[in-house]
Amino acid sequence: MKIIHKNIALFDEVIGRQQAQTEEMRPMNFVTSCEVADGRLLYNVLTRELILLEEGEHEDDKSIYEYLKQQWFLVPQSFNEIEFERQVKGVERMFAATKKPIISSFTVFTTMGCNARCYYCFEKGRIQEPMSHETAVKAANYMIAQACGKKISIHWFGGEPLYNKDAIVTICDIFRKQNIEFKSNVVSNGYLFDEKTVKQAVDDWNLTFVQITLDGTQNIYNRSKAYIYKDDPNPFETVLGNIQYLLDYNVRVSIRLNVSNRNGDDLLMLIDLLHDRFGENKNLTIYSHSLFEFSSVVNLRQTEESRHNLYLKRKEIEERIAHYHLNRKKGRVISNRLKLNHCMSDNNVSLTILPDGHLGKCEHYSDDHFVGHIDNEELDSLALQEHKEVLPDLEECKTCAYHPDCIRLKVCKENYVCFPEIREERIGNLHKAMKYAYEEYLNKRDTEELEDDGTELQC
């Protein structure tokens, strides 16, 4: 048996080992396993410990069995995993509460207007108000005051953020004049990123990352985006050219593929095209996202067959992305910390700033669920708490290994239903993380062995 990734410090320093039990033991529901060439990996999602049982080793071998009991891989038959997880996270939150959070991450809506007319836009019907110069000045000063000297991270959002570029320029100019350290990224359709704008963004906005959505190859993309520019015969080619500008200026670009049951095959062709066009550029990543079928808001109208077909098509799309090594890099995917919050909505260090100066906690809420205003230093504590409220567990949660990492917020309507395909995908991602961590372990071991042997390492 080999320890590939140690458990988190909380279990060594506070929770401790599981005491001897006389009751019959069973695997903890938060434990998942997968086969590798050298044996079988076991991962406890709550403790973060990953071990390898080598060929010929079994859980019921005496020494291994005792270790698995002590390290919470095995628990008594009557054990309540979810209650135990709640207690463990409560301890972790108690330690985290000793540190006063500093709000230094901001999602700034420069405008609710857009130069595209996507049929699936979730902001349809909302007031398309641009941020004024006066509000942009106030927003800049508000961010500086909240960050308390900490580096500011800005996420430009909209609408199409570049449709009101003046607000970005105003805020960044104030930061630069006051020597404020900051970086920025943007979610954009990419159409307005000509070479001059890219250079400006890198030099003046400290832009490091852009997310751009592509819905398909030329014909499907141009129809779905329906840009307002009638004199451009091929917006698809314009956006691809702008992606090249971004890559040339060393900006990381993540392309999101919105998948529905209507465009899956076309997206496979798009991935081939993107690879042919940009190669395996280290700054380019691609990922897919289900557009409709896995949203519980609309899914009562979807059939199980339709949903499952989409799931299989997405798997095929992700495999094609991985084939070209264009999948999103996640670094160390097995974390050394418990997951205590889901996203920006329930963390303590980020806010959204709307075009009229209202403050929010989630980029999907631009006309309600406000928590304050840039004209007032105080935030609405009740509104903040609303964004942290979680949904009650579903029946399937009781036996789901992913549960310690699954935080289902009430404000996120897509969390109201958990489809079997979602669970399968999440467990699959855990297995990928386990295998990735094991590969890292093997690479580190091989490197250390070479160094111990005095063998010269080649760069």
Write up what this structure looks like.
There is one protein chain. The protein is α/β, with parallel strands linked by helices and 459 residues long. It has two domains: 2-96 and 418-452, no CATH class; 105-323, Alpha-Beta Barrel (TIM Barrel), CATH 3.20.20.70. 36% of the residues lie in helices and 17% in strands. It contains twelve helices and 15 strands. It has helices at 9-15, 62-70, 81-96, 133-147, 165-177, 195-204, 218-225, 235-248, 264-278, 304-323, 381-386, 420-452; strands at 2-5, 25-27, 31-36, 39-44, 50-54, 74-76, 105-109, 152-157, 182-188, 207-214, 252-259, 284-290, 350-353, 358-360, 372-373. The protein has a nine-stranded mixed beta sheet with strand order 12-11-10-9-8-7-13-14-15. It has a four-stranded antiparallel beta sheet with strand order 1-5-4-3, covered by helices on one side. A two-stranded antiparallel ribbon has the order 2-6. β3 (31-36) and β4 (39-44) form a beta hairpin. α4 (133-147) crosses α5 (165-177) and α9 (264-278) runs parallel beside α10 (304-323). The longest helix is centred in the C-terminal third of the chain and has 33 residues, at 420-452. The protein starts with a strand and ends in a 7-residue tail after the last helix.
Query: C-alpha Rg, in Å?
Result: 24 Å
Nearest-integer average pLDDT: 91
Count of separate structural domains: 2
Number of strands: 15
